[in-house]
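Researcher: Sequence of Cytochrome C follows. Predict its structure.
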Amino acid sequence: MRRPLAWLMVPAILGGGIVVSAPPPDFDPDEVRSVFFESLDDAIRGQRPKLGEMGTGPSIAKSTATDRSADSGNDDGKSVWNVGADAVSLEDEIKRVRLRFEQGITTPGAFRSGGYQDARLDLTVLATWFAVINEFEGDVRWKDDAAVARDVLARTARNTQSGTIQVYNEVKKRAADLQDLVSGSGLAAAKADTDNDWATIADRVPLMTYAEQLLDDLSDATSDVATAKEEAELVSRNADLIALLGVVLTREGLDEADDPDYVELADAMTDAARSVKQAIRQDRLSDLRSAVGEISKTCANCHEQYR
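Model: Prediction complete. Tokens:
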């Protein structure tokens, strides 16, 4: 029922007087147009959603894929390193190998008598890990200098084919560079290419030798439950390093990196190493030996076919 206008004025009169409403605001049409859309259609890009189609779009993944082929995307060398390795494992290993490297180049005589071969291996390993750091996602020490360190160490590793005094002197310079880097001084060298050229960084044979060293230490550290508990840090670190090596060995430019069977073996080594890491982290010490055994079996199969 429609009520007369007087009824609408009763509340105002009873309140002691007539309340006069404020006049409506006066907007400049040009200013309003610069803030608001004239039509809802202008505010929506593309087709307007239909109510019946709401919620039928693709869902967001609830977990990150662990498959390395998916991680690699366009294989730009970035996300392929997502194998569960900790940055501290890289940092600690660089420190360890650096000390071993320095201890092996104390005199020219020892260097000439075979020490140059050990130095070449250590330089190759160090160049490889700095190349990984160069592409590693997340915070890790020496990342700003990683590309430069990668290049100078790889170059000297290639030159260390004999134990001459010239080679010895070059190797000693690399030891000084590493000392500067670890102490925080950085490397005084020309700017390096940000991309890794794996064909000039590492060779498969020395990397396989290095992988055997890591595996031997890992096997010793997991010989029994008590030892595994005491060596948990070493177990975790070596598992990380072996997992990363499996990725390194399949980088473009390295031997057999385009062989599907070889890549499958390298991936299997990485997966087994990740199982070791998970077992030690989750305190499933009884599973360690079988996981380490899988690494050994994979390495044996690879050496048999590709050594």
